[in-house]
Amino acid sequence: MGENIEKELFINRELSWLEFNKRVLFEAFDNYNPLFERLKFMSIYFSNLDEFFMVRVGSLGEDAENFPDKVDDKTGWSVKKQITEIYKSVERMGDLLENGYKNIVKELKKFDIDIIDFNNISRSESLISEKYFYEEIFPVLSPQVVDEEQLFPFLKNKEIYIIAILETKNNEEKIGIIPTAMEDQYFTFNADGRKKVAFISDVVQFYAEKLFPNFKIKEIYKIRVTRNADITISEAILDSDNDVDFRGIMQYMLKKRRILAPVRIQVCSELSEKMKGFLCEKLDCENNIIFKEKLPLNFSFGFSLYKALRLNDRKLLFSENKPVKCIKSEKGQLMKYIAKNDLLFSVPFQSFGVFVDLLYEAADDLDVVSIKISLYRLASYSKVVSALAYAAERGKEVVCLLELRARFDEQSNIDYSKILEDAGCKVIYGLNDYKVHAKVCLITKKHHNKISYITQVGTGNYNEKTSEQYTDMSYITSDNDIGADAADLFDSLQKGEAVESARSLWIAPNCYKTNVIELIDKEILKHKLDGNGFIAIKINSMNDIDIMRKLVEASKEGVKIELYIRGICCMRAGVPGYTENITVKSIVGKYLEHSRILCFGKDGHEKIFIGSGDFLNRNTRRRIEVFIPIKSSSARKTVLRILEFCGKDNKKGWYMKSDGSYCKKEISENDVIFDSQYELEKYFKEKSAASKKK
Questions:
Q1: What does the pLDDT read at residue 413?
Q2: Whole-model pTM over 0.90
Q3: What is the C-alpha separation between 612 and 458, in angstroms, rounded?
């Protein structure tokens, strides 16, 4: 494939991600969604964007400084070009964001909820806000005047500051800075028969003159700095004490992350040239990282506002999902069932509790000698950790591979590592060269000197909280070949090695991508023989150039390929002569689509796998990932039904156009609206009800 053609076929990773985040934002504008869910989607958009700047833009900034000649392997863009295009793309969203926020504020008013505009504040709002300011805010503020004696303070990551140009009685100018970080970013009250919401930063800005009584305020702004969070383990090791253990190095890394360079400055109004120059000098940055936004600089309030207002109108939220049990089983009989039947469950439609029950049952089983598990992200109060601790207390060997490098969950995992060790579990921290992202658990039994296994492989984390919010799948089997592969995996991890080969499991980085490409090749050959080649893949993201080239090759040979990719997709679909046999669909809905399904073939001849990895370079090259073959006929039927429902989704599905942009298909009056997540809720409830009747 020629270089020029590739530049037409492939898309820059960062711009593809921004296109995905735009799809998230459009859920905030969709009247089909309840009002507070729309507000939540807007908060998700900004939370995603914060992390994108901290990680992706931060990483590119480091590359621009250290590897200026590095180019994107898909578009040929330089690092500087990529950063420029990112900033342009984000800036173009300004009007859309402003109008979207105004519409949500307008809709809130219909429910007697006002977000206070301090440029147009009523008397009652002013009186209550002033009282709150003096009683709750003023006593904890620490305003500072910057001059030759007082240095410019460090501005913390993602916190809002009020910054002002002050004038003394002698006409001298100084800079005033007020941190606004408090436990809550807003407060609520009732006035005029309505519910009012006031942001702390707005209140502080409104009463700023009370904090600088000896000065005249000439200019005043709200600002928020986002800092690079992309510090590597190797950098932390070089900077820290060499005698510190791995857990200590991670703690050092977290401290250093807080002081890295700014990658974005958000402001609520146009900065004067004087203020712009001052900030760029003090923060050591260029003015192209300054973004003016006419909406709250910290949008996390959308996650908590419904509860804070003490609302009880369920119409303002999505209908509550009550997960059903995936199996009708008596207490203590789960392992006996799995010994004869493979078990598949799909959250959030089915309960994650079956896995926790399995751990407790294994802990009490006299034949169980060990439980080994890879942990990546855990809930704040983890039932899985409690079950593992219980197993250790019951005398089982419990080995936990706890990946301390799960970004932004590092401190949580450090804390859990101590808890698990105190409970008697053996905790290992993964490999130097590869992050362990696999979701695999191995229960080993010994009966009359015969070893047997129960193996669980999942697409998502052992996290009860996200199991209510993400679509994920988990497969549990007593297949001894699979168990032996899992045993080899944990043996290798304990030695600090990556698995070189496996019998049944696909284990990245050495035996994942090669297997994917091999099965694509088989579908190409099959299509040449009988014209029936077919591939369906559901993942979160794709940018691995080798896999994309192979999919292009398959499309050119006529193989029909259906890709369900929620986020990044760096290959254009529907390009005549190249990807015209490929469709790409992104589903963005009530739940975060997170399950990974690989299906090769059709009409009863499918080879189906589920697992933890996407088709990103990091998954195929730099992580330990695990995929498991789905052998049970009932499980295969369920997985294929999920893919079928994804294909039918005309409500939450976005289709990629040949230029790389996305659109929704227009729904006519005669079309039946099909929301795949809603239909899957119904499907699993009906399946559960049918099993109870047996």
A1: 80
A2: yes
A3: 6
